[in-house]
Amino acid sequence: FSPRVFLPKSFGDRSKLSRQIHRHFTAPFGNAGEREGALAFARSLLNDQEWFQILWERRGVLAQLPTLLIWGMKDTFARPEYLQKFAAGFPNNQIIRLESAGHFPQEEEPEQVAAAIKGWMNYFSA
């Protein structure tokens, strides 16, 4: 399980995955031992759906809080249908859809992400 393989697949626009960004994300996983945590996380995503469902069913404690959802619409891992699920589960939401971004919208569209967070935060501090 190598982030070097999965990282390029997670970008909606691979031209935005510079060598520097690629190294930034893959450096902590330089050898098989360092990738054990990432592998355990991937296995958990696949094998712990019952636990995730329990967490989802308990979301009522937080469901009405204001929620900002920033979503890369070309995310191949957390596809757009998951955005619909989160939007329905947290109805007091603001959604920012980044049409050309993938799993790391903060890397692909940093100005838009920063502006969205700043605007959202300013709304609540006013």
Defining key terms:
10% strand; 126 residues; single chain; mainly alpha; two-stranded parallel ribbon
Give a description of the structure.
There is one protein chain. α5 links the parallel β1 (67-72) and β2 (93-98). Strands 1-2 form a two-stranded parallel ribbon. Helices cover 53% and strands 10% of the residues. The model has no long low-confidence stretch (mean pLDDT 91). The protein has 126 residues and is mostly helical. The protein has helices at 3-10, 19-26, 36-47, 49-57, 80-89, 105-108, 110-125, and strands at 67-72, 93-98. The termini are far apart.
Topology:
Blueprint: H1 3-10, H2 19-26, H3 36-47, H4 49-57, E1 67-72, H5 80-89, E2 93-98, H6 105-108, H7 110-125
Parallel strand pairs: 1-2
Helical amount: 40-55%
What strand order characterises the main sheet? 1-2
Rg for CA atoms = 16 Å
Number of helices: 7
Shape: globular
Give the distance, in angstroms, between the N- and C-terminal Cα atoms. Answer: 46 Å
Overall pLDDT confidence: 91
Helix/strand/pairing category: mainly alpha
Low-confidence segments, given as residue ranges, are none
| Beta strand % | 5-15%
Topology pattern, helix = H, strand = E: HHHHEHEHH
| Number of distinct beta strands | 2
